Amino acid sequence: MHAFPRKAFILAAGLGTRLRPLTLDTPKPMLPLWDRPMLARTLDRLAAWGVREILINLHHAPGPLLRHLASHPFPPLRISAVFEPVILGTGGALRNAEWFIDQPFWLLNADIIADLDPTPLLRAWQERNPLAACWLTEDAGPKTVRCDQGLIRDFHDPKRGHATFCGLQLLDERILPFIAPDGFDTIIAAYQRAQKKRHRIAGVFVPGSCWADIGTPAHYVQAHRATAQRLGHAGESFFLPAAAVLTLREQSLLLASDLRPPTAGFSVEVLPPRGSSREFFRLKNPSGDRCCIYKYSTYAAILIRWSPERPDNRLYARHTRFLDSIGIPVPRLLLDSPRDHFLAIEDLGPDTLESRRPRRKPAEILRLYNPVVDITLRLHLDGLPAARKARLPLMPGFDAALYAWEHAYFIDHVLRARLRASETLIAAVAAELKSISAMLARSPQALIHRDWQSSNILFRGRQPVMIDYQGMRRGPAAYDLASLLCDPYVDLPAPVQQKLLQSYARRHPHGAQIAEAFPAAVIQRLCQALGAYAVLSKKPGMAPFARHIPVAARQLLRALKVQPLPALRAAARRLAR
């Protein structure tokens, strides 16, 4: 055989039933991934692998696919298509294309995202001479495949399976005798028949590869997120038809509410992922404006689908009403359906305190932050008494267990996983952090936001607006100030931090004690943030969080000048490099 196969067969005849109505008139291979049809990305990849002849089987809605091939030629490739009047399945399609199979070839599903080095598959094919070499992953999917010593033992073993078949394989004409002579058949069934005759099917794991499928709307959305970094779209939003993003129930809730999205051309902007077990979407109408109608006034709307796995997500709507009642500016609540874990809020746009910070002089930063300090002070002075009176459900307050959890988060994900620190250093840091939590437990307590950073402060005109407050709880007032003033996202200069801290302290009855606890709160908060950055940066589409780690470490070193902790300082120096 050639060093690289010269032929490939793309399976594109599927009905796309689970993706309807997206696929009523469009075959799955023509659905866009980051504004480019998946088929085009597949053809590019195969051409880069040295493929020169491609066969595509068609059945459902072949017109858009054929028109694309006619209007977007791929010069290195000779592309043929075969139409199946009756769908034949992945195995029957091979039988129908027997004329094409005269040498080793790639066989792959058209509805998968595949980014991999094909060399391990070629190596397995050449060294082991299997009937087929199948790409497997242990990182995603249903994991029903059992593979041992490089050979697939079972394709359908839900109890002992540990891998997912990715829909890409290298094989040749030896497969043909194991395909049913007529009618519908699958390639997996053909493999199973061959295994009974002692033929070997190699299973190949490819380090550094990326796989995703678009079998369902949820998978389609996740495929964008999984490939964002690889395709140069990290941190970007993307637009999809509402049917690709929202369930039928969610669409009906919108249409039945005072939010009345346009029924024609209804599409949704999928916003970048965040670390809160929630998904965020922005309504978009056919003209491209962010708008919908709410009680005869024009507002934009952000849709939030939340997971009940995190108990704080259940509190968002009630906390919105509470904060509004005590004069804290929050987004307007436009729709709340707790049974569906779905709500909508006023869209204040992308203008955050973080985005307003760059290239401002110290005096301008003070003017920008002073209204935010005012909001912080009001929350801390009025929040706890009002919450008690309203019997507002809150997340468990800061206590020894919560302090210890934040410490363990930092130790496990930063010291152990990222720095590979010695157990001696880890023990010393743990002891130092325990002393910090004791200081904070003795400091003045209040109702705190708990994540009061620049990305959680939007603007309605010049008015700062608080968001992401579902984690409110009783805790050290200094913790919120540490989150706001020592935020790695904006990296405020030390003199500005001190002026804002003093502005707060002068107006709080216990301001002196809060200011005294501030360095300890900075240490506590930044250790938690560093743990979060380490965890989030490993998730699909969220690698940019890692860039905040050196900034957070430098802020931590600044606090450690006031509150010396030698072991923690040694770790922070390594992180700041």
Write the layout of secondary structure elements.
Elements: E1 7-11, E2 32-33, E3 36-37, H1 38-48, E4 53-58, H2 62-71, E5 78-83, H3 89-96, E6 105-109, E7 112-115, H4 119-128, E8 132-137, E9 146-148, E10 151-154, E11 164-171, H5 187-196, E12 201-205, E13 210-213, H6 217-227, E14 238-241, H7 242-245, H8 248-256, E15 267-270, E16 278-284, E17 292-294, E18 297-299, E19 301-306, H9 316-325, E20 333-337, E21 342-346, H10 353-356, H11 362-390, H12 400-416, H13 423-442, E22 445-448, E23 457-460, E24 463-466, E25 473-476, H14 477-485, H15 494-507, H16 511-536, H17 548-562, H18 566-576
Parallel strand pairs: 1-4, 1-6, 4-5, 8-12
Antiparallel strand pairs: 2-3, 6-11, 7-13, 8-11, 9-10, 14-15, 15-16, 16-19, 17-18, 19-21, 20-21, 22-25, 23-24
Helix pairs in contact: 3-5, 11-15, 12-13, 12-16, 13-16, 13-18, 14-16, 15-16, 16-17, 17-18
* Cα Rg: 28 Å
Strand segment count: 25
Provide the domain count. 3
Compute the average pLDDT.
87
- CATH architectural name of the largest domain: Alpha-Beta Complex
Strand content: 15-25%
Main pleated sheet? 7 strands, mixed
SS-derived structural category: alpha+beta
The strand line-up of the biggest sheet is 5-4-1-6-11-8-12
CATH class category of the largest domain: Alpha Beta
Count of helices?
A: 18
Q: So what's the overall shape?
A: elongated
Give the terminus-to-terminus CA distance.
50 Å
Name of the CATH homologous superfamily of the largest domain: Aminoglycoside phosphotransferase (APH), C-terminal lobe
The poorly predicted ranges are: 285-299
Q: Which fold name corresponds to the CATH topology of the largest domain?
A: Aminoglycoside 3'-phosphotransferase, Chain: A, domain 2
